[in-house]
Automatic annotation (TrEMBL):
This is Acyl-CoA dehydrogenase family protein. Keywords: FAD, Flavoprotein, Oxidoreductase. Residues 279-401 form the Acyl-CoA dehydrogenase/oxidase C-terminal domain. It is an enzyme of class 1 (oxidoreductase). It comes from Streptomyces bacillaris. The lineage of its organism: Bacteria, Bacillati, Actinomycetota, Actinomycetes, Kitasatosporales. Residues 6-118 form the Acyl-CoA dehydrogenase/oxidase N-terminal domain. Belongs to the acyl-CoA dehydrogenase family. Its EC number is 1.-.-.-. PANTHER family: ACYL-COA DEHYDROGENASE (PTHR43884), ACYL-COA DEHYDROGENASE FADE28 (PTHR43884:SF20). GO terms for molecular function: oxidoreductase activity. Its cofactor is FAD. InterPro entries: AcylCo_DH-like_C, AcylCo_DH/oxidase_C, AcylCoA_DH/ox_N, AcylCoA_DH/ox_N_sf, AcylCoA_DH/oxidase_NM_dom_sf.
Length: 422
């Protein structure tokens, strides 16, 4: 195994970092999250059409760059460093691999090129906001009742003469308020043939365009958008850079992702996507931790007490050294997971824990200013906390990885029963 990055991978990292340094500073991030889209559309178009970011890991036949998950992880590390709000995670990391794995040739040909060039964004909607369970990160997604299983709170699919219709709702859908396409996980078949399938629900945008002069249009975060039995409401989220939405479906027409509802291995595709997504998320969390650490180091070099910079105090140096070791260890784990996705959940657990620790220490070392809304230090705390709520928690990620590895002996059946009960 050659752990060194190629010249092309280094160029991807350098080009993206330079662009985000110029166009995604703290001021631009704060402005972007207050737009209707929850991100800066002009910057997204530049990242998509100029750098081909959403198509990095897509096959060349669909307009992608044909790169590996490693390149996508490197890109996510840089977007995490800047805390960039963008559709990259929801579209390229979660939705695109599912369309590639399960879609028909016509579905792939019709959707993936538009995803690659950035003209189409997508979001994965699962019932109950149970993203980690659906992706198989914290439990076996074949046995855990994350899809509702016919009970209240799930999304139900019914097939009739007019095609498929969806009923129910999904909470905490990442970028669900603005995505042009929803991938909805729904339960169908009743008790005898109970199964979970994925459906395509195209949406109409209803999102105000930017006004002349480049100033973004601000809208209330809870303003709903509706189309053909579909209601999407942007939620007030802990981390503004991770816009979440509630998706309500009432007799909503949908198309089955794939052709055969009886043989589609949806849970397998979700678990495979979860492993690669965990590697990208781990890299993104490492980038956020590194960004918080870099800002803290810069601050302690400038802030003076007793006539000297506080960074010269031995206690501060020790704390920063410990944080640096944590970040580098988590980065190594994330890079390994990009090479071997099977290690993704463990790398994600380490990266989320590191991001939480570094962000907390960053606030402490910034002193009183670190607690204010005007300073960006608290944004890293929110990102770390929100990501663990959405894709963790850390102890569940590690517990499931240990069960799968057989570290606790023959207890898999008991563990899976416990996960299903939880």
């Amino acid at each position: 195994m050659d752990a060194a990055f190629t010249a092309e991978q280094d160029e991807i990292r350098r080009t993206l970092r330079d662009l985000l340094t110029r166009h995604a500073g703290p001021g631009e991030i704060r402005a972007a999250v207050r737009t209707a889209e929850g991100h800066a559309p002009a910057l997204w178009r530049r990242l998509a059409q100029g750098l081909g970011l959403p198509g990095l890991a897509l096959p060349e036949e669909y307009g992608g760059a044909g790169c590996t998950p490693t390149e996508l992880a490197l890109a996510c590390e840089e977007t995490g460093r800047a805390l960039l709000p963008s559709p990259l995670l929801a579209t390229a990391v979660l939705a695109a691999p599912l369309i590639t794995a399960l879609g028909t040739p016509s579905q792939r040909a019709g959707l993936l090129p538009r995803i690659a060039d950035g003209t189409l964004t997508a979001a994965l909607a699962v019932p109950g906001g149970s993203m980690a369970a659906a992706l198989g990160l914290t439990g076996d997604n074949r046995s855990a009742p994350w899809s509702g299983g016919g009970r209240a709170g799930g999304v139900q699919a019914r097939h009739g003469d007019g095609g498929w219709r969806l009923y129910g709702e999904a909470d905490r859908v990442l970028d669900g308020h603005s995505a042009g396409l929803l991938l909805v996980a729904a339960h169908t078949g009743g008790y005898p043939r109970s199964r979970t399938l994925l459906f395509l629900v195209p949406t109409e945008s209803h999102v105000p365009a930017e006004v002349s002069g480049g100033a973004p249009t601000e809208v209330p975060t809870d303003a709903p958008t509706r189309t053909q039995g579909l209601t999407r409401t942007r939620l007030t989220s802990l981390d503004e850079t991770r816009p979440l939405a509630r998706v309500e479906l009432r007799d909503t027409p949908a198309a089955l992702l794939g052709t055969d509802a009886d043989t589609a291995d949806v849970c397998g595709a979700l678990a495979a996507t979860g492993r690669t997504a965990a590697a990208a998320l781990a890299a993104e969390a490492v980038g956020a931790a590194a960004g918080a650490l870099e800002r803290t180091v810069t601050y302690v070099k400038e802030r003076e007490q007793f006539g000297r910079a506080i960074g010269s105090f031995q206690a501060v140096k020790h704390r920063l050294a410990d944080l640096y070791v944590r970040v580098e260890a988590a980065r190594s784990a994330a890079y390994y997971a990009a090479w071997d996705p099977a290690a993704g959940p463990l790398a994600l657990a380490q990266a989320l824990e590191t991001a939480r620790t570094v962000a907390g220490e960053a606030v402490q070392l910034h002193g009183g200013i670190g607690f204010t809304w005007e300073h960006e230090a608290h944004l890293y705390v929110k990102r770390a906390a929100a990501d663990e709520l959405l894709f963790g928690p850390v102890h569940r990620l590690r517990d499931h990885a240990a069960v799968r590895a057989g570290l606790f002996g023959d207890v898999s059946s008991r563990a899976l029963a416990h996960e299903a009960a939880v």
